[in-house]
Amino acid sequence: MDAYEQITRNVSEVVTEDEVRALAESPDGKRAYVGYEPSGVLHIGHMLTATKLMELQDAGMDVTVLLADVHAYLNDKGSFEEIRDTAERMKAQFLAYGLDEEQTEFVLGSEFQFDREYVLDLHALELNTTLSRAERAMAEIKGGDSVKVSQAVYPLMQALDIVYLDVDLAIGGMEQRKVHMLARDVLPAIDEDAPTCMHTPLIADLSSGAGKMSSSTGTTISMEDSTKDIEEKVNAAFCPPTANPDPADDGTERENPVLQIFEYHVFPRFEQVVVERPEKYGGNLTYDDYASLEAELESGELHPMDAKTALASYLDELIAPGREKIRAQK
Ligand code: TYR
């Protein structure tokens, strides 16, 4: 794999390809970041971008994790003190998940977002952005029904973070894309470059394959899950023998979440995936890459039930160190 392929592996969107190609020419010392609103427990969405950060570290890039305490506050996630506490616990879980302590810089938003210069730049961005544009950018991020003024300030601060953290590449899930597009449009107004961005896919809801997996609705996987929880959730997952399931009866698009988790969570972290099967059912199956596992699920060589059992055990292995941390934090 060349550096560009490694950097863009498994991403849904690259903005722009030319910019990322330029980065890939000399990734050493370039910096990428993801920001997270602190929450008590990492879930599978956090883990997906964290995996991307690990891949970028492998490609030689430096990584910043922004623990966006002020953003969480603006998005109505609790008192500032509670959020700060949560940020510390989250950091420990990211390290347990596998981010390299030496190569990862953890920054709290409140460390720089109250600086006079930052605040003045923020006001300049406010002058250059309509409320409706800010509102649209937040459509997939905000909590609550109606948009508060704080949630209109939020995407502008996210744009400004890219400047103040001095990053070359902003990473986020697809739900962050409108904020990044706003950042690309508005940062030039304060004489800053439009940032280069990459967006990771959203995993479908585990039980239905429709919509996206989220901790607020449906089933999600988190670091708090016991081995048994994971087994139960994965066993109950939607897993037809195809990567392209038919839409649901009401026309909603569906994905195969079991395959998605293999692709985006398991294969990036393990050289090889072994599906254990008793001899009488043909013995173990070994896969060196995602495509061959997908092909055998489609051909019927790999039964969905065996795929699920294997998935549960790999996921369990991935989250076990973080689960230990959470127990110690209690
Ligand atoms: N918007 C991100 C989320 O939905 C959090 C975030 C905050 C990301 C600030 C980056 C940033 O600079 O969780």
TrEMBL record:
Gene3D superfamilies, alphabetized: HUPs, Tyrosyl-Transfer RNA Synthetase
Keyword line: Aminoacyl-tRNA synthetase, ATP-binding, Cytoplasm, Ligase, Nucleotide-binding, Protein biosynthesis
Class of this enzyme: ligase
Alphabetical list of Pfam families matching this protein: tRNA-synt_1b
Recorded superkingdom: Archaea
Motif 'KMSKS' region: chain residues: 212-216
GO cellular component: cytoplasm
SUBUNIT field: Homodimer.
Keyword NADP set for record: no
First-listed, main subcellular location of the protein, grouped into a coarse class: cytoplasm
Family: Belongs to the class-I aminoacyl-tRNA synthetase family. TyrS type 3 subfamily.
GO MF annotations, alphabetized: ATP binding; tyrosine-tRNA ligase activity
Residues the entry annotates as binding ATP: S215
Species annotation: Halogranum rubrum
E.C. number: 6.1.1.1
GO terms for biological process, alphabetical: tyrosyl-tRNA aminoacylation
Catalytic function, reaction form: tRNA(Tyr) + L-tyrosine + ATP = L-tyrosyl-tRNA(Tyr) + AMP + diphosphate + H(+)
Subcellular location: Cytoplasm
Annotated L-tyrosine binding sites: Y33, Y154, Q158, D161, Q176
Function according to Swiss-Prot or TrEMBL: Catalyzes the attachment of tyrosine to tRNA(Tyr) in a two-step reaction: tyrosine is first activated by ATP to form Tyr-AMP and then transferred to the acceptor end of tRNA(Tyr).
Protein name: Tyrosine--tRNA ligase
Motif range ('HIGH' region): 38-46
